[in-house]
Amino acid sequence: MFMSQYNHTVDTKGRLIVPSKFREQLGDEFVVTKGMDGCLFVYANDDWNAFEQKLTSLPLINKEARKFARFFLAGAASVEVDKQGRILLPTNLRQFAGLEKDVVLVGVGSRIEIWSLENWENMDADSDMDDIAGTMESLGLTI
């Protein structure tokens, strides 16, 4: 399970250091794809394969299912960690998430999210946790 958050920077070549605690769980190769809310999702290969199976099992006759699968699968890239613990983020993914320099890597259970620092701070500031907690309670989650 991934948890915690780490602040890092993307260098001019598009490389990002992955925190060692995350690398231990991800291994030397893993998948980065477009995520929800304007961030990137990072999956260990086993978790990605399970997610990919679910996406490819969606009914082709459902237009929203096709769009949903296309969003994640077309944006996905397999990345490898170099000897310095860095990955090269593809240009299209950096542009999608607005990753220019300062980024935040956030552990969210079965995946990691990569946010631009600005988007992370704006998203966090806009959250009303009381309202969100009420929604989660209606979904069966209580604290």
Topology, element by element:
Elements: E1 5-9, E2 15-17, H1 20-26, E3 29-34, E4 40-44, H2 45-56, H3 63-74, E5 77-80, E6 86-88, H4 91-97, E7 102-108, E8 111-116, H5 117-125, H6 129-138
Antiparallel strand pairs: 1-7, 2-6, 3-4, 3-5, 4-8, 7-8
Description:
With 143 residues, the protein is of the alpha+beta class. 40% of the residues lie in helices and 27% in strands. It is built from six helices and eight strands. It has helices at 20-26, 45-56, 63-74, 91-97, 117-125, 129-138; strands spanning 5-9, 15-17, 29-34, 40-44, 77-80, 86-88, 102-108, 111-116. A six-stranded antiparallel sheet has the order 1-7-8-4-3-5. It is globular, with a radius of gyration of 16 Å.
Features:
143 residues, alpha+beta, 6-stranded antiparallel sheet, two-stranded antiparallel sheet, 8 strands, globular
Strand arrangement, largest sheet? 1-7-8-4-3-5
Counting DSSP H or I runs of 4 or more residues, the number of helices is 6
Instruction: Return residue spans where pLDDT drops below 50 for at least 5 consecutive residues.
Output: none
What's the β-strand tally? Answer: 8
* Rg calculated over all Cα atoms: 16 Å
Order of helices and strands: EEHEEHHEEHEEHH
How much is the average pLDDT? 91
Strand percentage: 25-35%
